Prior knowledge:
Layout: E1 8-19, E2 25-30, H1 36-42, E3 56-58, H2 60-67, E4 81-91
Antiparallel strand pairs: 1-2, 1-4, 3-4
Amino acid sequence: MPYxxxxxxxxxxxxxxxxxxxxxxxxxxxxSHIPITIxxxxxxxxxxxxEMFLPYEINLEKSITLNSFMNPPIMFDFSKYEYALQRYxxxxxx
Length: 94
């Protein structure tokens, strides 16, 4: 199935929490309510990745900004986990 902008149904945005030791995803926190315009400002170097489908690393500074949009806030634990913003598209068959 071809993936094209005109057959996208929805885009879901998650904050992925992965273990440093084995890169296994510990949990995914839905943050689809944060508009992409805000996400582009937080992750200011998206280049040609207009839809932000590439993973974007979340550091302490970005976690504080993201938490200002989360209720309840996420308890980030950078001593055990690494975090990334990940967006996925759901597409209809054409």
